[in-house]
Amino acid sequence: MKKCIAVVACLSALTSVSALAAWQEIGSNEQSTVSLDVDTLKRDGDRAQIMSMLDFKTPGVDPQSKEPIRSIIGLNEYLCGKAQYRPIEYKVFSGNKGEGKVVADVKSPDSTFEAIANGSWAAGVYSIACRAK
Fold first, then answer.
1. pTM score, two decimals?
2. Cross-strand pairs, 42
3. How far apart are CA 75 and CA 50, in angstroms?
């Protein structure tokens, strides 16, 4: 009986990231919708980190596995004063809104910062992550 309870407890703890997040849509275009989990926003001086989700309206294809992808959930870090960002980690999913198979799970804590292009999904996330105090 104790083993059964332990297994149920472990399975309950393995809930997907998307089910735990309180996603708030911040914008969309013909290709995708961008949502944030504002509860994950952390500020430290000029830096901000927040989780975001890109949900594709038309499936894409993972360049390495050639599997279809419909959403990406990631943690990104922003340099607010320089309008730059970098991915810390992200997961690519076969289903919309972080559902389905995990096609890729990438951790890149040492990635370099890059400029944020006007009109990009990163620009929308940046404007919210860096304006909040």
1. 0.81
2. 49
3. 6
Q: Give me the CATH number covering residue 12.
A: 2.40.128.710
3-state percent breakdown (helix, strand, coil) of the chain, nearest 5: 25, 50, 30
| 79 strand-pairing partners | 47, 84
- 44-82 pLDDT per residue, tens: 999 999 999 999 999 999 998 899 999 999 999 999 999
- 10 CB-contact burial (10 Å; exposed 0-12 / middle 13-18 / buried 19+): exposed
Our count of domains for the chain comes to 1
With beta carbons less than 8 A apart as the criterion, state whether 52 and 40 touch: no
Range of the domain at 29: 2-131
* C-alpha to C-alpha distance for 74 and 70, rounded to whole angstroms: 14
Inform me whether the pLDDT recorded for 114 exceeds 60.
yes
| 74 CB-near residues (< 8 Å, 6+ apart) | 51, 52, 53, 87, 88, 89, 90, 91
State the chain's mean pLDDT as an integer: 86
